[in-house]
Structure formats: structure tokens, C-alpha cells
Design a protein that fits this description.
The protein has 94 residues and is an alpha/beta fold. The protein is built from two helices and nine strands, in the order βββββββββαα. The strands form three sheets. A three-stranded parallel sheet has the order 1-4-7, with no helix packed on it.
């Protein structure tokens, strides 16, 4: 669902399966479950907290385990791809 130019205030907001365009989030609890795609375009956040649940939380737990389990280089390379805007399945950016 696409949501444009909306202000969310003092709400719980799940990002999964939504496209947010020029939205404002004030004092919201923002959740990412990792069950579907989401998009944030030119959105603002003020006083919000972010949380991860479901598959998204599992992924972070696995990344933490890898990092502290001797696979720090793999995690760092993954984060470098994130910084460059690369994502799984996409060709690497130069």
C-alpha cells in the first residue's frame, strides 16, 4: 500500500508491505518484521523508536552470532554492501 504526505503521531507503525512517500513520523514505534518489502522516500522521523521482529529480528540475531563467532569479515562485507546500496540479488555497484 502506498501512503503519501501523511503524518503519523504516537502510533505503532509496521513498515512491511508499505511504501511511505514524504511522510512524517512523530513519537512512533516503527517496526520492521521482514515479511515483505517496504520503502521510505523523503520521510522524516522525530522521537521515534525502531524495532525488529520476526524474520528481521532473526536476521539480526544471525548477523550478531556470525560477527562474534569468527565471521566478522563476512558481516563487515555485508554492511559495506549496505553502505554502497547493494542488496542481495543485485549486481554490485562500482
Amino acid at each position: 500500500m502506498r501512503i503519501s504526505e501523511h503524518t503519523f503521531e504516537n502510533q505503532d507503525v509496521v513498515l512491511d508491505f508499505h511504501e511511505f512517500d514524504h511522510c512524517t513520523f512523530k513519537n512512533c514505534k516503527v517496526a520492521i518484521h521482514g515479511t515483505g518489502p517496504c520503502s521510505l522516500v523523503s520521510c522524516g522521523f522525530d522521537g521515534c523508536t525502531f524495532g525488529f521482529a520476526g524474520p528481521a529480528a532473526n536476521t539480526l540475531q544471525i548477523m550478531t552470532m556470525l560477527y562474534h563467532g569468527g565471521f566478522r569479515d563476512i558481516v563487515e562485507a555485508t554492511l559495506e554492501n549496505v553502505r554502497k546500496g547493494n542488496h542481495p540479488g543485485a549486481p554490485p555497484k562500482a
